[in-house]
Amino acid sequence: MDLVLCHTTADFDSLGAAVGLCVLHPGTRIVLTGGCHPTVRDFLALHRDEYPLIERRSVNPSQIRSISIVDSSQRDRLGKAAAWLDLPHIKQIAVFDHHLQADLDIPATLTQIEAVGATTTLIVEKLREKLKNAAEDGDTASRLLPSEATVMALGIHVDTGSLTFEGATARDAMALAWLMEQGASLGVIAEYVEPSLSPQLQDLLQESLKNLRSETLHGYTVAWVLLSTDNYVPGLSSLASRLLDLTETDALLLGNVYNLSENDSNRNIAEPTVSNRLAIIGRSRISSTNLSELFKPFGGGGHASAASIATRDVDPMLILNQLADELKAQIPHPPTARELMSSPVRSIRPETSVGEAHRILLRYGHSGLPVVDAGDRLTGIISRRDIDIALHHGFSHAPAKGYMTPQLKTIAPDTLLPEIEALMVTYDIGRLPVLENGELLGIVTRTDVLRELHQQKTRDRGNNIELSYCPLPESVEQLLRSGISPELWQLLSIAANIARERGWQLYIVGGAVRDLLLATDDKVALTDIDLVVDGNRSADDSGAGVELASSLQKLYPDSRLDVHGQFQTAALLWHKDSVFGSLWLDIATARTEFYPYPAANPEVEASSIRQDLYRRDFTINALAVRLGEPRSGELLDFFGGLVDLKARQIRVLHANSFIEDPTRIYRAVRFAVRLGFAIEPQTEEYIRHATESGIYYRIQGESGRTPALETRLKSELRYILQAPYWKLALQMLGDLQALRCIHPTLELDRQLWRRLRLLDRCLNGRKKEEGSAADSVTDVTDVTDGIKKQVVKKFPMPHAQFPIPNSQFPIINIPDWLMRLEVSIAYLAPEYRGKVAANLLLPADSIKRLQNLEVANQELAENLPKCKLPSQLVLLLRNYELPVLIAIALQSSRSIRRQILEYLTKWANVESPLNGNDLKALGYKPGPAFKRMLDDLLAAALDGHLGDRASAIAFLAQHYPQT
Questions:
Q1: How far, in Å, are 31, 61, 81 from residue 57 at the CA level?
Q2: CA distances from 545 to 126, 467, 590, 612, 808 (A)
Q3: Residue 824 — very low, low, confident or very high, per pLDDT cuts 50/70/90?
């Protein structure tokens, strides 16, 4: 374990530097050795889950490999964690600091103590160099997360007084500039940086606090105050910002009335009289309010969240009250807990063991679990941190009730977002249960709140016509509506209305959303649409999705309804419909899934839309658009899918994705080649780790059945091998060693690639000849006594449907993709071929061909060299199916391959000069002898002994005289 230690009472500089080191060295964990500054505490109350923090008591000292100390060079500032510095097995102790005057008393193996304004600057310089080198090596996707850039920028801002303190340097300024380029949030920085006020402004601050008026509306607090001064006061904007922070209001109007021509030594709250000068400073943190528009009629302006007015000869109190009323009118109704919460909620009983609770957290990816009694009443919550501590001390079998938090803060479904945010910050709560009539209805997490706040800020900034990080709902709805046919839009609208009537929310998800966002044409031909119903309950055992599909089918009786109750899904299908054409509309209940072991079929349970999207394969497929009110057209992008669409890259959602489902490797390649995207570097590393681990073959042996390596893998192979881009996709799979999912010894080396290219030439040659095959096989030149005399002119590669005459085994048509797959499997050692084909659930005749291929290969290797005449060649090879002959030709020596191809292209379609009807016309009686007679006639014709009909009849008279 690699640790970075912040000093006691950690400030933003130590936290920012620690986060930077964790980015430099992935896997490193941060330990706050003894509390933190109040503003840092408030910041972490909302953002803790975004950083790799670990409790000091959860650290096992024996597992520590290295320690880094930031913003301190003295061990007495590390609290009890200082004892770790004396552990004999520690390999490295590094110190990063900017306090030159401090005495170093830490046994450091590496130090960097330099004269800069903030320790974070030293780490940022290292990060900038690392990412610059990565970009030069071709990794253009490497950049900081906004949360990482923001906390590092806070560290520099706070320790340098926003570059105003004496110790600030140009290096600090350049580091800040780079962090802004990396996406540091100025809004968050402004929220936690505390600029200094002049003595005059400090006096005015006290006066403002004494006379401030406020009102709370929709969970937002609006405040206003009017001050009177003798003269103009510079720095009122700083006063307004400080007042906004201290009062924790959401919007503030700060007025200052002054008279330059009169000297009144008494300064107090102004009376409602006309004055010569009035300045008003406005600040707002409320989404959808616009101070610039509010101030414009009075000659003011600025930004939506910060604006000012400078006017004269007005009634100051009247103007201020009027502006306050208009500002309150702009306040939107904030989201409620019901709109934000995740539901249904997974809970445990008080007697559930800590170990079982840990397994549930692992299974569903949660960070905490509500604890309910036998009457389903909420009794507490146990967090991941609580469980980690219990497991650390060896209490995996102890009941969860001993480690849960019993004194809970709860909220109601109609609790507004500002109140939820205040509760989380005030009490450092990561999740709030939502109760209705004592029943646990859902849960709101920090992530829910942060996501909503981010979306609100994005909406405030406006929308970009191109792919942006969070498009406005109106623009996405318009894109959807204009991108599909009016009839399809009507169908989706009807479905959304039916869902809303039942209290559900409907979303269009996955590939349809991806293709609409990528579309360059006016209309997108969507033939496969996935809808997800977030119902919070199920109508029956089949789920909300099935009920919705059934209701739609009654309105569209021309569609066919297929129900899959096990997976809570249903599908409506139209085939060559006059309105919808061929359309597949899949409707599912929001669900989550868990893989009991790698490559298994997932176990499915009803869940929320967020969990439903999390179970998907790649970020670009984990997008959803809300259909119907409220917030129709809202785009749900929990995992950065829009960013990846813009970067044209395939990125997986979690590290174990390919271990759980190897078919996702094939899907990654298929999407990359089809869309012209690149596989994101970290995702490629996950793929290589999975293919090199040998997990799939090991699981096959342990578990017996691995559905992901059976029908699902066959489906993906079919998609790829029948696509026009199959060569490029197969080469990419070969480079990733992904053919090991089929069998651990299968690799795309030069020999296998050569066989597949030769096969492709055969298949392409066959297709070119199909159109003219009927004219090129034979030409009728004479008809005598009702018997056609045929002269062979040209023999193309026979189509697989064309049977070899007189063969015991008619050639069966198989699609090209299956032929390519059989040739690939045939490259394996003989003992593996049949088993692999059976594992992939290939057709029975394919399995049989591959099982018997080696026997056929040995037979032909022995007998083909003995064939000197065309008749010997035909009589031998006509007993083998075309796929078998092609497979053997591709893997045999040149001489054998030449004989097989000569048979297929020259002799296979030659027929006997006479047929059975001709024999009957000549007076022969039907019977077993007919076959021998026709075979002998064919052999004589092939060897050139028969030239015309007369010679054929003479041949029969000589060899089969009639008595």
A1: 10, 10, 10
A2: 52, 30, 8, 13, 52
A3: very high
